[in-house]
Amino acid sequence: MHIDLNRSGSKTLPHQISETLSQRISSGLLQQGVRLPSVRSLAITLNVSQVTVSKAYDMLEKRGLIYCRQGKGCFVADPTHNRRQEEGCWQDLYDDYLPRAQLWRNFDVSEVKYPFHLAAIHSELLPLQDIGDTYASLVKEQPELMATYGNFQGDLELRNVMREHLKSRGISLTSSDLMITSGTQQGIDLVARTFVGPGDTVYLEAPSYTGAIDVFAGRGAEMIFVPTDSEGMRVDVLTKMCDQRPPKLIYTIPTFQNPSGVTMSITRRQRLLELARSYRCLIVEDDPFSDLYFHAPPPRAIKSMDPDGHVVYMKSFSKVLAPGCRIACVAAEGNILSRLIAAKSASDLGSPLLTQKAVLPFIAEKYDAYAAQLRITLRGRMEKAAKLLKLYAPPGVNYILPEGGLNLWLELPPSPDIASLHDLAEQESISFLPGDVCYSAETPSRHIRLCYSQMKESEMEEGLQRFLRVLGRFLQ
Amino acid sequence: MHIDLNRSGSKTLPHQISETLSQRISSGLLQQGVRLPSVRSLAITLNVSQVTVSKAYDMLEKRGLIYCRQGKGCFVADPTHNRRQEEGCWQDLYDDYLPRAQLWRNFDVSEVKYPFHLAAIHSELLPLQDIGDTYASLVKEQPELMATYGNFQGDLELRNVMREHLKSRGISLTSSDLMITSGTQQGIDLVARTFVGPGDTVYLEAPSYTGAIDVFAGRGAEMIFVPTDSEGMRVDVLTKMCDQRPPKLIYTIPTFQNPSGVTMSITRRQRLLELARSYRCLIVEDDPFSDLYFHAPPPRAIKSMDPDGHVVYMKSFSKVLAPGCRIACVAAEGNILSRLIAAKSASDLGSPLLTQKAVLPFIAEKYDAYAAQLRITLRGRMEKAAKLLKLYAPPGVNYILPEGGLNLWLELPPSPDIASLHDLAEQESISFLPGDVCYSAETPSRHIRLCYSQMKESEMEEGLQRFLRVLGRFLQ
């Protein structure tokens, strides 16, 4: 398998190898019982000494992730002890470039009754009838929309609507500075494939969004997680870190951050932009939640203060309108944007035109009134969840109530076995997101993320109570 | 800028650097007047000597692609001689990983009246009303489809339909061996990002599909183009090439190949599969056209003969049903497929569920009858085009009439200046695809590709006559 090694990095080579293998195992990319490459062959593939690979395998064996048998090789451990020693089909030895896949592992459509792991809004709250009506009239009146490859950059009429939308939020750009992507996930992926490569330094908040981490890991980036406090990313700490390792890119979710819920102060936003300008690097400003505030509107977007194109701003409409439509807007200027459009063309030849046209009238005419109502509803839900937490959260469980967004971020008492908690919850048909997938490597996290908006209100309340009981039993 | 150099490759380093820069210029990624990095800084970035970079710049200057000024640096040439010497904004120096983008350059929605460059089927021939009716009833009866993140692998019900579809074409798999992608372009991209990395050898037919070349180039692959004859890829030649450079992957469009129209014989298909098995590598079998035969059905798919998962088979439904819907099916087994699904999750969190459901009933119930009728219609068009070619093609223009698919592949007399022809055609509001974008580097090609199914029949006839007149004038 392919592993991007950073020979001038702060971590030793055996450490880097064992971290990547551990991520591959925990993502399910390396399945239980599968034979790892021999020490000799992996050493040749990675161009390192056999001692280095042996050390990495030792680390993994000590952590119980693999086991080795004299003369037979090393195998991914099977926690049920029902050890298959597979012959190793040719496919197992066919190299890939996927260091981890925690999205795949943790987010795929789940069969649980209480899917707290998924940050989404319940379909009853979404404007599906409006969007559906537009679909119905478009397929009748303009069927050729289904037959047309859209513009790679995205439909111009929709970009005009997005331009006005962003303008009302302090971001003044032209339609030619905007691109439509299939969700923000694709936007992040396009930036990464275009501008990030092996060894490039990417700074992120600690913790950060799993899907972004997967993508940057896939590009072989050196990811560095910057501590945060109640004002968001510690830009002072980041500034010192940049002295050591200049940034290629800084990825941030400044508003109601995913997963922590924290919002970056306006001062830090300004400083972050100054830092990016002085290092001539990009900021990716991922903004799924700024319309979903519960009290005061959040500080203005970093992009609104960006005179010379250092910020690639991403606004998700999927989450708030209809996740299944997969529509997001990416704002960037100059040849940063044109290169992203080039990358978009190679990814999928452009997003479906019909869907772009289907969400357009709603965004143009009704979005703001809808968002105002949605804020009230979500705040109500959050307060219901808060009440339950106050009543039933076991002692030692800490949290800060979010000022917006969709998630609760709970800190458990030291050294919890989150995997066992996950299993226990699953037995009650409850899922949550383990905090460790919000970091790049085996950073032990005692956090978990719960979304309070993905179910009907009554189900959310029922599920949360049930989960807090499970948590109580678990912590005893 | 980043360039993947192959230090053990057959081409010299200056040659590799100049080829990549030339591709970036012809794709429009490097614009006229932009200053290239200094010799010193590019040498440091690429970890090569300054002499190597100087040689590369010399090659480009000799070809007229750049010009250098003592003390000022080297600039991308401006053929209109209206030379801007830009100050170089920070963005120009911000490194990327895009070696070329010919899709972006050549396929974006064009304003020409006769878009012969786009291989598509005119909307009047597509079953848009059927698909539109399904959309209309789905948004009414199951609006929650718009609210749901689909399964990353694709909707199970659609995969069941695809399974039956493939079974009727000799490919027997289970639904769990199939994945839905946003067009075949995304399928190719997923395979490349998962399994192809810098220096990996990818074999393709000479010529091949521009979009696949863009993708493999973006992964830093060493692409090798295998000669073809009337039976398709010369597998005997490929076998010898593999002795020198073992394949990581073989990309083929065996049926009515894009752009050449040639179909691979059954014997070659078998041999190609044997070769892949002996090298334990993957074949990507891209199949957009096998249902669009004009006389006899083409030989069976390579995938239908594949017992141990060496073939990733891709069937486009976009082209034949509704390009704007972006639906394709990828068939692969075991952990080849599971890794592709993991990559799909990081790319876009899955394809839109509503669209998957919207094409489903048509594929299940009406596709075969529709395809039978479409074959007759397309054959009629091709014959109309053939008649015009026979009457009006200037002497020295050669072609073989295709047995299926959507394209004509014309060979012009030696050493034509295709760029000038393109400009001439554009003046008459006609576009075509220049053959050189169907290769990886500056392979001079005297071919052009024309699609005869993208316009109304009368417009196609009018446009083709007009183009052949332009071509006649040009060749005089």
TrEMBL record, chains A, B:
Source taxonomy: Bacteria, Bacillati, Bacillota, Bacilli, Bacillales
Transcription regulation found in the keyword field: yes
HTH gntR-type domain span: 11-79
A family per Pfam: GntR
Name by which UniProt lists this protein: GntR family transcriptional regulator
PROSITE patterns: HTH_GNTR
Family: In the C-terminal section; belongs to the class-I pyridoxal-phosphate-dependent aminotransferase family.
PANTHER family: HTH-TYPE TRANSCRIPTIONAL REGULATORY PROTEIN GABR, TRANSCRIPTIONAL REGULATORY PROTEIN
UniProt entry keywords in alphabetical sequence: Aminotransferase, DNA-binding, Pyridoxal phosphate, Transcription, Transcription regulation, Transferase
Organism: Paenibacillus odorifer
Superkingdom, natural source: Bacteria
Coiled-coil residue spans: none
Cofactor(s) named in the record: pyridoxal 5'-phosphate
